[in-house]
Amino acid sequence: MAPDRIRSLLRWEVGLSIALAAVIVFGITASSQFPTSFNLFYLNLSIGEVAIMTLPMTLLIVTGEIDLSVASTLGMSSALVGYLFSHGWSMPLVIATVLAVGAVAGWFNGFLVTRIGLPSLAVTIGTLTLYRGIAVVILGPNTISTFPARYTNAGVTPLPHTGGYLSYSVGIFLVLAVVFGIVLHATPFGRSLFAMGANDEAARYAGIRVKRTKLILFVVSGLVCSLAGILYTFRLSTAVQDNGIGLELSVVTIVLLGGVSIFGGRGTIIGVVLAIAVFAGLQNALLLTNFEQRAMGVVTGALLLLSVLIPNVTAFMERGRDFLRRRELGVARGERAREAAS
């Protein structure tokens, strides 16, 4: 990335750090329960699966694509976990099968985008409905909640040796965040993603296999979202066809709030991690103040708008300042030229 883009990202991450500090102060002021280990563990539980799904979404948006079917893939995976287990499959085989199905779902998205040439926004809006419909077909109105205790207990108990603060889902997220961060920021593959997001055609002429790379990212998205669906099922101890409905909005909001440009070519995993903390902390603090749960969408929508509006307003102001500087420089050069001529 260009130095000016790196500087703007660093400024955005500093702003997120300040916002996180403000959320913590607000939470502690609003309720004495906010800093307790019980509440922080509950906060972990509420955001774990969403946080996991933000990682492949980050890589896709960096390349200029998007996957709005993430929550439907989660729901379809959850329904499949319940269906297969209720039909006598062993849980390890269920998990392996569901992960494979998630990868195929991601491949289908990627195939339509990279091989057929359809826009990812339109494709994944379609598969958002398709995969949710498959979940309905798989389970119908049925609810499956007879999973082995060792799996469901892992969904609601903290990781050992973490002081009761860290859930299994957030522990998995942190491991994956390190992996995704290294891939995005410290490998030639990651640099190719930024190149694609900055200019698709230029990346292709530079020898980057754009279509194959994007197809891989969609497969990874499907795989990771199916993992989130499995964890979601274990946390709730329930598989129903509407598990995770609407979570795609939270995923997109967090990624954009983390400084990832909706136009591609810019973003960091660190920014997304900070945005997750801000988003989850703010929601938790508001709930502790008896904020209406059904009105939480207002907060999500406002954050989404701000995360898109602020970078674009800032970029517009920077372009305006650059224009004025160039104009002043041109005027100064003209005056010097006239003085020299006289």
Describe the fold and architecture.
With 342 residues, the chain is mostly helical. The chain has one domain: ABC transporter involved in vitamin B12 uptake, BtuC (Orthogonal Bundle). It is built from 13 helices and no strands.
* Annotation field: number of helices: 13
The separation of the N and C termini measures 46 Å
What's the CATH topology label? ABC transporter involved in vitamin B12 uptake, BtuC
What is the beta-strand fraction? under 5%
Instruction: Detail the poorly predicted runs.
Output: none
Q: Using the CA coordinates, give the radius of gyration.
A: 23 Å
Total separate domains:
1
Mean pLDDT over the full residue set: 89
* Helix and strand composition category: mainly alpha
Shape: globular
Number of strands: 0
- Main sheet record: none
* SSE series: HHHHHHHHHHHHH
The CATH architecture comes to Orthogonal Bundle
Features:
ABC transporter involved in vitamin B12 uptake, BtuC, 13 helices, globular
Write a compact overview of the structure shown.
With 342 residues, this protein is mainly alpha-helical. It has one domain: ABC transporter involved in vitamin B12 uptake, BtuC. It has 13 helices and no strands.
Layout: helices, strands, pairs:
Layout: H1 3-30, H2 37-62, H3 70-86, H4 91-114, H5 120-139, H6 149-156, H7 168-186, H8 188-198, H9 200-205, H10 210-236, H11 247-257, H12 269-288, H13 296-341
Helix pairs in contact: 1-12, 2-7, 2-8, 2-10, 2-11, 2-12, 3-4, 3-5, 3-10, 4-5, 4-10, 6-10, 7-8, 11-12, 11-13
